[in-house]
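lol forgot to send this yesterday, sorry. struct tokens for the thing we talked abt
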């Protein structure tokens, strides 16, 4: 045991049983919680996805194989969920990031009532998503919603956002952009705080204008933060689920046309009790999100040029 702890730490102090066990005792509650609520469920879901005919009450199954994956990839609802989730992410993530960058740029300047506007943009983060969803359901109402009233001011016919499958995804994307902006704005504002003001002072002294300063200084220095927000937002968009319940009364859109991958998982698990298929869809979503995250990290490293 003594030979095991003869190494020294970076600060020069010898690593003994006491110096090792004391930090380990402080970390133990976190590590135990991580193993019980993150590591074990992940491994269990991965194993269940290969168990054919799995029964949750008894834990019995007929054997290991890829039957669950074959059933999932052939299910039209899952394929529809993949398509809708991809469209949602492609529309919502860039739009929310661009709008948040604009808002963060404005809030980063010395404007009047700056604290008030920051509070307004932060409020959606501390409000129940279900309560907000009910408000948006009212805004999208065909007969007396404010959105259709605003459109009528421009002589545009009212849109049946929530009952016409052709407009369900648009309504979900509008709601998704709005709900994603607060957190993204906060992250970008934090990124602005790390930009040295001397860069702007030197650029203005050389006669650079606002647009050129933004392209040549702000965007390159914000690249790591923008990359982080894109990754976080992409992961969040791939898990779109809670927004569907208040807007469409717990259904995946009108006429069940707006399945998402997570809603498919929920339906397979809690409604149909097909746990193997639910686990397989969760693993497929994990692999897709992991691959996209790795691609984004690779692009982000190439994006750095300072």
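and heres what i got for the seq, position by position
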């Amino acid at each position: 045991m003594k030979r095991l702890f003869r190494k020294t730490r970076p600060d020069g102090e010898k690593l003994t049983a006491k110096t090792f066990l004391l930090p380990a005792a402080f970390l133990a509650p976190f590590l135990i919680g991580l193993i019980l609520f993150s590591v074990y469920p992940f491994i269990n879901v991965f194993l269940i996805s290969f168990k054919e005919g799995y029964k949750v009450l008894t834990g019995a199954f007929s054997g290991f194989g890829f039957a669950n994956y074959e059933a999932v990839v052939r299910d039209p609802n899952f394929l529809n969920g993949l398509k809708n989730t991809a469209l949602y992410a492609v529309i919502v993530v860039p739009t929310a990031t661009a709008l948040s960058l604009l808002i963060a740029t404005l809030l980063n300047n010395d404007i009047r009532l700056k604290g008030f506007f920051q509070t307004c943009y932060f409020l959606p983060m501390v409000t129940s998503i279900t309560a907000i969803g009910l408000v948006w359901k009212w805004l999208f109402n065909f007969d007396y919603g404010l959105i259709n009233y605003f459109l009528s001011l421009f002589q545009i016919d009212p849109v049946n956002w929530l009952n016409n499958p052709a407009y369900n995804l648009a309504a979900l994307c509008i709601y998704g952009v709005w709900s994603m902006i607060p957190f993204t704005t906060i992250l970008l504002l934090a990124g602005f705080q790390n930009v040295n003001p001397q860069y702007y002072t030197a650029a203005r002294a050389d006669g650079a204008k606002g647009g050129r300063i933004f392209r040549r200084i702000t965007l390159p220095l914000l690249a790591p933060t923008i990359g982080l927000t894109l990754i976080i937002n992409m992961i969040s968009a791939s898990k779109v689920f809670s927004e569907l319940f208040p807007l469409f009364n717990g259904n995946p859109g009108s006429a069940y046309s707006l399945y998402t991958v997570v809603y498919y998982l929920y339906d397979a698990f809690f409604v149909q009790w097909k746990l193997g298929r639910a686990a397989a869809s969760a693993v497929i979503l994990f692999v897709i999100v992991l691959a996209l995250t790795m691609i984004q990290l690779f692009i982000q490293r190439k994006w750095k040029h300072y």
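The two ends are 48 Å apart (CA to CA). anyway ping me if u want another try
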